[in-house]
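Researcher: Hi, I'm a grad student and pretty new to this. My advisor asked me to get structures for two proteins we've been looking at. I'm not sure of the right format, so I'll just paste the first sequence and hope you can take it from there.
Model: That works fine. Here's the first sequence with its structure tokens right after it:
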Amino acid sequence: MTEARTSQPARRRYVRDWLRKLITFWTLIALVSAVALLVFADVGEDVAERSTTQVDNAISAWFVGHQNPLLYKIALVATWVGSPAVMVLLAIAAGVWFYGRAGRRKAGVVVAAPAVGGLLSGLIKILYGRARPAGAALLDERTYSFPSGHAATSAAVVVTLCYVLARERMISWPVAIVIGGGVPLVVGLTRLYLNVHWTTDVVGGWTVGLFVAAMSAALYEWLRRIAPPAAGEAGAAA
């Protein structure tokens, strides 16, 4: 009986250690990348086949039907905050701050995210050549519709930044998850509310941005592995 009792904690420790080795940040990055690619492939195929028109039109009509002057102005401000230009400035500011506090490698990861995200979404827009909803003409937004550049860039920048901040123990993981998920969500919804994008545009943008963020996180983990933080940096992050 005693041997059986002592073996149970040992077995539990073995299971915990095995799970800890299995569920690593690399595992999380691989899963997020795979899910983002699969969702984008599915949505992109439907958009190419124009099989999303009924759903996109229905959701667009619902948002347009619930517009009011106050919420419209709020959405305009929120969509400006989440614009690629502002996100690039945020990434550069964060990169400069990281450079002064924790080293060049983190700055490079954060600054690279919006550039790659914007480049990818721009190339895909040209590839699909999808027309925007009617609301885009009111705001003079003339680029193609799929995927949403606002959704892609905000997801790429904010998720990358929150990941690095959490890994550096500057914010907690719950805070990182709330901010990293909440900001791109709000930005994407403003694009629907303003009637400048279809729902599938926003979903496609989120997946592009999430994939870029996952690749940025992978680069961060690789740099962290080959160039561990110096003693001063480690003490500051602890």
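Researcher: Oh nice, that was easy. Here's the second one.
Model: And its structure:
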Amino acid sequence: MVLDLFLYFIVYSFMGWVMETIFASINQRKFINRGFLIGPLTPIYGFGAILIIQSTRWIDNILIDSYISTLMSIFISTLLVTILEFITGFTLERVFSTKWWDYSKNALNLKGYICLKYSLLWGVLAFLLIQVIHPFIVRFIYLIPISVKGYIAALLLLCLLTDTYKSVINTLNLRNTIINYSDLSIAKYKKMIIKYKRIVLVFPRLLTLNEGIVNRHVRSILDDRINKIKIQIKNRFQN
């Protein structure tokens, strides 16, 4: 049971990453590795899916009518995942001193962490998960032998913990670089921004940690680096 839940968490974290990455890449017209982690996982979707799965099981055991049970499952799931999103946004801001997303411009939002629009979207995703996606995933996970599940889960857990540790350290380093930019040389600052450019491009709100950062042309640093790479590639083909 625990192994299955963990594998569900990984599967839905990956699916969430794919969805977020496709959406962000289309909007920015280039590939964006959307997500806090380096690897292709967005844990908030994994945790959200587990909440939906477990709450649905609990409601199904209480209610007999399938129609009412489904409606209650979607409602409770939407509520729980919205609370999860609020807690996640609040915690990330306290740790990294900046909002990782901001719904302040959307109607009926709460401190910019959650809003009605995205809560309703969570409800749609909960419905699709319960009615369409999860039954298929259950059958897929069931086919994996228990002994093999243990090895797969152990390997994935190790990768997840390593990735989480490295991603947190990288983000804190970038945060300290941005906050203490006046103490760094231009060369050192450029080196750090380029080193952590993935985080800057995915979460540009980190740049609001210090308004003076605009004067150091973070975007220009990244664009200059990208242009140099393009020129190098072009010269190779011409030669």
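Researcher: Is there anything I should tell my advisor about the second?
Model: You could mention this: The longest strand covers residues 109-110.
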